[in-house]
């Protein structure tokens, strides 16, 4: 059932315009993006199902049961995961992916205009948007200017991370390329467990030593997973 066929007091679009986006639930906001439901299912019902707590079938497939646990889980889903959900055709998948990319860009603009030292929660959210949904480990670096504002985020290494696979020389080269005064290191744990491992701590120390030789400070190392984020600086690990 499309939004226009819902009773007037149940139409999320009209509610948003009358009361503001903050008055809508996650499902109502998602329904506006989806616009139409499925056979025998209103768009609001479908949106609620997509955001329902995750379940796994015998094969462990999320797409087969069509739930992502939260709006965060849905927006961090890969295109491949979205393509497994019945009813999410190319147009709807493109719209959801576009929403996520707009969120990334809006947050990047915030970080380019403010000191990241004052925005730890925003930094963690920004790194989550970029890395938390990835199925393999990715090591990234946020390059900062002398005011600790964001210059760029670059994904530098992929695969099992550690001192053997993350090369300090490459990080130093990219920091010099951007004329960075400081950096924030970041990587994801696809398992969802964000507690830093001993390898994470050793890698951080190695990069701190290498970057200090060119007067670039390492401000933090952010570890993210689906629905979780940790700052090593906040945890006293740096």
TrEMBL record:
Please name the Pfam families in this protein's record: RadC, UPF0758_N
Which CDD domains has this protein been placed in?
Answer: MPN_DUF2466
GO terms for biological process, alphabetical = proteolysis
Q: Which residues form the MPN domain?
A: 116-238
What are the protein's UniProt keywords? Hydrolase, Metal-binding, Metalloprotease, Protease, Zinc
InterPro entries noted in UniProt:
MPN, RadC_JAB, RuvA_2-like, UPF0758, UPF0758_CS, UPF0758_N
Question: Please, which domain of life does this record's source organism belong to?
Answer: Bacteria
Query: PROSITE patterns from the xrefs?
Result: MPN, UPF0758
In Gene Ontology terms, what is one molecular function of this protein?
A: metallopeptidase activity
Amino-acid biosynthesis keyword on record:
no
Q: Which family does it belong to?
A: Belongs to the UPF0758 family.
Can you say what this protein is called? DNA repair protein RadC
Which gene is annotated as encoding this protein in its UniProt record? Answer: radC
């Amino acid at each position: 059932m499309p939004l226009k066929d819902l009773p007037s007091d149940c139409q999320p679009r009209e509610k948003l315009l009358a009361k503001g986006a903050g008055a809508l639930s996650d499902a109502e906001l998602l329904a506006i993006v989806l616009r139409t439901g499925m056979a025998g299912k209103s768009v609001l019902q479908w949106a609620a199902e997509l955001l329902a707590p995750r379940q796994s079938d015998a094969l462990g497939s999320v797409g087969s049961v069509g739930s992502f646990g939260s709006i965060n889980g849905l927006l961090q889903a890969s295109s491949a995961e979205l393509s497994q959900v019945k009813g999410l055709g190319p147009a709807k998948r493109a719209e959801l992916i576009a929403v996520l990319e707009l969120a990334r860009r809006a947050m990047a603009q915030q970080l380019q205009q403010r000191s990241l030292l004052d925005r730890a929660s925003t930094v963690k959210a920004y790194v989550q948007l970029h890395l938390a949904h990835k199925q393999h480990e990715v090591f990234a670096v946020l390059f900062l200017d002398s005011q600790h504002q964001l210059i760029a985020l670059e994904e530098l290494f992929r695969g099992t991370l550690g001192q053997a696979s993350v090369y300090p020389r490459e990080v130093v080269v990219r920091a010099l390329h951007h004329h960075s005064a400081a950096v924030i290191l970041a990587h994801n744990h696809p398992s969802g467990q964000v507690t830093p491992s001993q390898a994470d701590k050793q890698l951080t120390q190695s990069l701190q030593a290498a970057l200090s030789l060119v007067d670039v400070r390492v401000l933090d190392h952010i570890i993210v997973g689906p629905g979780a984020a940790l700052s090593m600086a906040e945890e006293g690990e740096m």
